[in-house]
């Protein structure tokens, strides 16, 4: 448990250093938050999450979509940290049923993968250097979170971790969609 706490603290410190500020890539379309979110959202919940996430860090001026994607990546990484931390706290309950213990441990493992992939996405956005693996990193991050969510839904869909996983999945989708709307998609 001490190692996990240290790992989460290290991840949070890395995330803070990596995602301070914003970054605009050349040749990206410049849009308002509302326009960018409308283009990448697959429905009202995703639109609201995108708008809320981007308005928290943006002034009301138009900006490059890579800058928005970078902010989304920061929120997605923070979501990973929060979910990993929540899973660890839930595992401290000695009366937790074995099925939930297994589901929570599985989620923490899968979120380790998602966290790593979303960090890679953030680094690509920061450098405006989109490797051939960019789309795969997006797919891998989403798949890891989806795997966690499926296990939680089967074990206990009322778990607080399940809601966190759904939000993390949407943040990852928004981030990757924004990046692919810009230079990463070319």
TrEMBL record:
It comes from the Eukaryota. Gene3D superfamilies: Invertase/pectin methylesterase inhibitor family protein. PANTHER family: GENOME ASSEMBLY, CHROMOSOME: II (PTHR34838:SF6), OS08G0142100 PROTEIN-RELATED (PTHR34838). This is Pectinesterase inhibitor domain-containing protein. It comes from Aegilops tauschii.
């Amino acid at each position: 448990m001490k190692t996990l706490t240290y790992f989460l603290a290290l991840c949070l410190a890395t995330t803070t250093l990596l995602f301070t500020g914003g970054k605009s890539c050349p040749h990206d379309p410049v849009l308002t938050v509302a326009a960018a979110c409308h283009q990448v959202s697959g429905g009202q919940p995703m639109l609201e999450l995108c708008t809320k996430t981007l308005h928290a860090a943006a002034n009301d001026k138009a900006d490059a979509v890579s800058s928005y994607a970078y902010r989304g990546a920061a929120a997605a990484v923070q979501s990973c940290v929060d979910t990993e931390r929540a899973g660890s706290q839930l595992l401290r309950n000695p009366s937790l049923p074995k099925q939930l213990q297994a589901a929570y441990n599985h989620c923490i493992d899968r979120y380790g993968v998602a966290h790593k992939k979303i960090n890679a996405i953030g680094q690509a956005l920061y450098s405006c250097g989109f490797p051939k693996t960019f789309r795969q990193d997006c797919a891998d991050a989403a798949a890891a979170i989806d795997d966690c969510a499926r296990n939680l839904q089967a074990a206990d869909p009322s778990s607080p971790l399940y809601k966190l996983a759904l939000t993390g999945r949407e943040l990852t989708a928004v981030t990757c969609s924004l990046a692919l709307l810009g230079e990463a998609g070319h």
